[in-house]
Specification:
This is IlvD/Edd family dehydratase. The protein has helices at residues 12-15, 21-31, 38-41, 64-77, 100-116, 131-142, 168-178, 184-192, 206-216, 232-251, 255-258, 261-274, 280-291, 298-304, 321-327, 329-338, 355-359, 403-409, 428-435, 472-476, 536-548, 560-568, 587-590, and strands at 47-52, 81-86, 121-126, 146-150, 157-159, 162-164, 383-386, 393-397, 418-427, 448-452, 484-486, 499-503, 520-524, 529-532. It is of the alpha/beta class and 594 residues long. Strands 11-10-9-13-14 form a five-stranded mixed β-sheet. It has a four-stranded parallel β-sheet with strand order 2-1-3-4, with helices on both faces. Strands 7-8-12 form a three-stranded antiparallel β-sheet, covered by helices on one side. Strand 5 and strand 6 form a beta hairpin. Helix 5 (100-116) packs parallel to helix 6 (131-142) and helix 12 (261-274) packs across helix 16 (329-338). Bound molecules: FE2/S2 (inorganic) cluster (FES) and magnesium ion. The site of FE2/S2 (inorganic) cluster has 10 residues, from loops.
Length: 594
């Protein structure tokens, strides 16, 4: 590219601005501190940020500290200058009350960092569940050239010759513990076996899902999402990612060129085929809103529900992250979907080529792990979007409904997709844990379990608690799952057929706030509805009584951020973003320099 054709670098406003020489001198002398020379800073080389999510508090992403060295080498090799900086840590399982609270905080911090400092492009180091959407959301808002690098999954876990997968083994271990098949030490040992190396969860949980979708959106180098963290290919990929971002700056290839409606529809289709997490609709809605793409929740059913499950990873299947990579990863899945016309092939990706061109020739290397389109593991693997008098919108992954579950709840020949039963209502996860094994609750195999007070306001950030195990006495009788419905989220590592992300939540006075234990509820998957069988007048009376008492009660905030987020956060069906933040779009272009 000739010098004239190159876009003017925004970092020049800091380091090479003759109109403001005193400020330029101030910026320059500080950035010399860690060893860059005046010549380098004034050379006109693109300055690339490395948004570092790895730290001791974020062990899932910690390997990015090592990978950043290779990213830097790639950046330098391509003629750029690398400046690495920390992102607010988010660790899915360790953060209290929930890591969901931190996605929007990391987003805010990163927007300020990449907008307010002398950067021309940024490498987004993704991995653990919320880190990936937080970084993509911020890149969308600022709209500087950006490329994501996944840290990659852990190696496969093994225990007594069998694969043990992150998170999924916890759900299984809990059942074994409840049945007395394991003691506490045995339980811990079993769970620890699932985490044999650096990297993120090796199951198709939210981490593998969101990194696969970052690639399907076109924001990551093709074939890179699935590379396990410790593999040498991962280091090589870090180097190529560093090289590529410099070229992206020269080409002025921005998130808004890549994150189009076509890209989001590709991600929805891929999510069904990989058996992706029920957290994906929340995060994709958030990214879409920050880039200004209209992506209603109903698109998930319209575009994604009929797509079959091709990837045989736990929790829906048998295998784990290493197997997914060896079988061909995202490109092999995309190629299968392309063969059916399900992929919008012209969607542009970070390497400057289209999704179609990147994936057309990708082949499946192991058909046990990635199935050909005509031999799927399951049909209709996407989500149903449900509504009714208890909520306006919720999602359900129907493909995880087991035959036993279907028979128990959905076998009425007159109405094979509907079920009616009494409700038991829990107010938040603590209430559930205290009471679940109390026989006085009278939970039977016909009960529907409700979890409320677990949405973005009620349990700040929305807790992953809707998939509730039945009481131990029912598990002993062979009832391993009851229908679960709630305004919280569910871990992507859980295979429960729950109805999730119900919006508006109880704390926002959605219909769930009015439900009482003992009410009869009808769930009708055929009609896409969940309703409490109570006349409208009585619901209105209950609502008036609750409003008179000050609304649905939820615990006080414990930190300033909890209070701030609660005052501005939206509901899960529209991405649970900070309402108002979406009006700041493409600020690198629309707001000029800070
Ligand atoms: Fe971090 Fe699963 S807990 S990736
Ligand atoms: Mg999670």
């Amino acid at each position: 590219m000739t010098d004239q054709a190159k876009p003017k670098l925004r970092s020049r406003a800091w380091f090479d601005n003759p109109d403001n020489i005193d400020m330029t001198s101030l910026y320059l002398e500080r950035y010399l501190n860690f060893g860059l020379s005046l010549e380098e800073l004034r050379s006109g080389k693109p300055i690339i940020g490395i948004a570092q999510t790895g730290s001791d508090l974020s062990p899932c992403n910690r390997h990015h500290i090592v990978l950043a060295e290779r990213i830097r080498e790639g950046i330098r090799e391509a003629g750029g200058i690398a400046l690495e900086f920390p992102v607010h840590p988010i660790q899915e399982t360790g953060k209290r009350p929930t890591a969901g609270l931190d996605r929007n905080l990391a987003y805010l911090g990163l927007v300020e960092a990449i907008y307010g400092y002398p950067l021309d492009g940024v490498v987004l180091t993704t991995g653990c569940d919320k880190t990936t959407p937080a970084l993509l959301m911020a890149a969308a808002t600022v709209n500087l050239p950006a490329i994501a690098l996944s840290v990659g999954p852990m190696l496969n876990g093994w225990h007594k010759g069998e694969r043990t997968g992150s998170g999924t083994i916890v759900w299984k271990g809990r059942e074994m513990l409840a049945k007395g098949e394991l003691d506490n030490d045995g339980f811990i040992k079993l769970v620890a076996s699932s985490a044999p190396s650096t990297g993120y969860c090796n199951t198709m949980g939210t981490a593998t899902t969101m990194n696969s979708l970052a690639e399907a959106l076109g924001m990551m180098l093709p074939g890179s999402a699935a590379i396990p963290a410790p593999y040498r290919d991962r280091q090589e990929c870090a180097y190529h990612t560093g090289k590529r971002i410099v070229a992206m700056v020269e080409e002025d290839l921005k998130p808004s060129d890549i994150l189009t409606l076509d890209a989001f529809h590709n991600a929805i289709v891929v999510n069904s085929a990989i058996g992706g997490s029920t957290n994906a609709p929340i995060h994709l809605a958030a990214i879409a809103r920050h880039i200004g793409v209209d992506l209603p929740l109903t698109d998930w059913e319209r575009v994604g529900h009929k797509v079959p499950l091709l990837v045989n990873l736990q929790p829906a299947g048998e295998y784990l992250g290493e197997d997914y990579y060896h079988a061909g990863g995202v490109p092999a899945v995309v190629a299968q979907l392309m063969g059916q016309g399900l992929i919008r092939e012209n969607a542009l990706t970070v390497n400057g080529r289209t999704m179609g061109d990147n994936c057309r020739d990708a082949t499946i290397e192991d058909e046990k792990v990635i199935r050909p389109f005509d031999q799927p593991l399951k049909t209709d693997a996407g989500f149903l979007v449900l509504s009714g008098n208890l909520f306006d919108a919720a999602v359900m992954k129907t493909s995880v409904i087991s035959a036993e579950f279907r028979q128990r709840y959905l076998s009425n020949p007159a109405d094979p997709e509907a079920f009616e039963g009494p409700a038991i209502v829990f107010d938040g996860p603590e209430d559930y844990h205290h009471r679940i094994d109390d026989p006085a609750l009278g939970i039977t195999s016909q009960t529907l379990m409700f979890m409320r007070g677990a949405g973005p306001i009620g349990y700040p950030g929305a807790a992953e608690v809707v998939n509730m195990r039945p009481p131990a006495y029912l598990i002993t009788e062979g009832v391993s799952a009851l229908p679960c419905i709630g305004d919280g989220r569910q871990s992507g590592t859980s295979g429960s057929p729950s109805i999730l992300n119900a919006s508006p939540e109880a704390a926002a006075m959605g219909g769930l706030a009015l439900l009482r234990t003992g009410d009869r509820v009808r769930m009708d998957l055929g009609k896409g509805r969940v309703d409490v069988l109570i006349p409208d007048e009585e619901l209105a009376e209950r609502r008036a009584a609750l409003v008179a008492k000050g609304g649905y009660p939820y615990p006080a905030s414990q930190t300033p951020w909890q209070e701030i987020q609660r005052s501005v956060v939206g509901q899960l069906d529209t991405g649970a973003i900070l309402e108002g933040a979406e009006k700041y779009q493409r600020i690198a272009q629309t707001q000029g320099l800070p």
